[in-house]
Amino acid sequence: MKKLTITLIFLITCITTYAQELKTDISVHDPVIIKQDSTYYIFCTGMGIAEWSSADKVHWKQEQPVFAKAPQWAVDAIPGFKGHVWAPDISYYNGLYYLFYSVSAFGKNTSAIGVATNPTLHTNDAAYKWTDHGKVIQSIPGKANWNAIDPNLITDNNGTPYLVFGSFWDGLKLVKLNSDRLSVAENIDNIPTLATRRKEVAENLPAVDGNPVDAGGNAIEAPFIYKHGKYFYFFASIDYCCKGPKSTYKMIIGRSKTLKGPYLDKAGLAMNKGGGSILLQGDSNWYGVGHNGVANFDGDDYIIYHGYDAADRGISKLQLKKLNWVDGWPVIQLK
Fold first, then answer.
1. Does residue 221 have an active-site annotation?
2. I need a labelling partner for 10 at 20 to 30 A (CA). Which of 123, 138, 275, 276 fits?
């Protein structure tokens, strides 16, 4: 009897501990999602790149960060960088998972994008190991009028890989990658702008709330391109994140039949000339919403993003919703 009691106590302890590991109301920032086998993985902004796993897209377990130590190349390249990595992007190609990530000084385009690869995302797999390949592209104040953060990998209709990225400054950029997806394949001095809030090239938009003056108040970032049907859809976030109850973040959308655009909104306005239809914005429950990714699981499209929770002091929380398509445009299924 005593042995049975001890066994029951042990089992109850194990179950309780496991339940405590799983959370449903998790705080994340700039999330992306992917599925390997029957497990979903989220990567997001955090020390060493934060990671969560789930079997059902509802209950989440926090995994160890991708990097136990800040990549040395990033420490050398970005003054003051101590390992807080921003806005990762996850994709799978030719037997490897590719994790692009951002390192930056806050409010400056002293920034760079790096990439790491892993043959598996299952942390209990003997093959699990992140290999960092270092810098892919870098922006330097006074030399580049763009900001090398917020990467997203996308391939054109021929399978050629590109990286869309950017935040403030001259807007959201597109650069061609080499076939190994580890380095750029073209001159970065004249890469095109796919989206901006400026309606005219010389327009100077006023900066808000201490945001970068030399970025001209061009509050657009977090590009994500997703192919659906005959169109490439360009998602981006505008206005201001990271301010809790004062956040005004919102998502916009445009589409194009070619990867390089131009991307037009529902009114026919080009996103590289200030266009972009509102996809989702804040309400009484969420102060602001944005920095999204899109993924397809078992035939259904999902959109993942963060929102600033009005019921919890404006803390950034995970939002994962089904994405429907109505008359050729995405619609978020909020309930």
1. yes
2. 123
Bridge pairing between strands 39-44 and 50-54: antiparallel
Name the nearest CA neighbour of 165 among 224, 125, 226.
224
Contact at 8 Å (CB) between 153 and 125? no
The first and second tokens of residue 329, run together, are: 């445009």
Q: What is the DSSP track for 211-227?
A: --TTTTT--EEEEEEEE
- CB atoms inside a 10 Å sphere around CB 2: 6
Q: Which of 30, 51, 89, 239 is catalytic?
A: 30
| Contacts within 8 Å (CB) and 24+ apart, 175-183 | 175/137, 177/136, 177/153, 181/93, 181/98, 181/115, 181/153, 182/115, 182/133, 182/136, 183/136
Residue 31 phi/psi, 5-degree rounding, is -85, 150
Q: Is 51 a catalytic residue?
A: no
User: Rounded CA gap, 113 and 243, in Å?
Assistant: 24
Asked if 153 and 97 touch (Cβ cutoff 8 Å), the reply is no
Neighbours of 56 (CB within 10 A): 11
Using one digit for the tens of pLDDT, what is the confidence trace for 122-142? 999 999 999 999 999 999 999
**pLDDT tens digits, 276-323:** 999 999 999 999 999 999 999 999 999 999 999 999 999 999 999 999
pLDDT at residue 122, rounded to an integer:
98
List 51, 150, 170, 221, catalytic entry: 221
Query: Quick one: pLDDT at residue 203?
Result: 87
List C-alpha distances in Å: 252 to 172, 223, 237, 279. Answer: 13, 10, 6, 5
Q: What is the pLDDT of residues 89-109, one digit of tens each?
A: 999 999 999 999 999 998 899
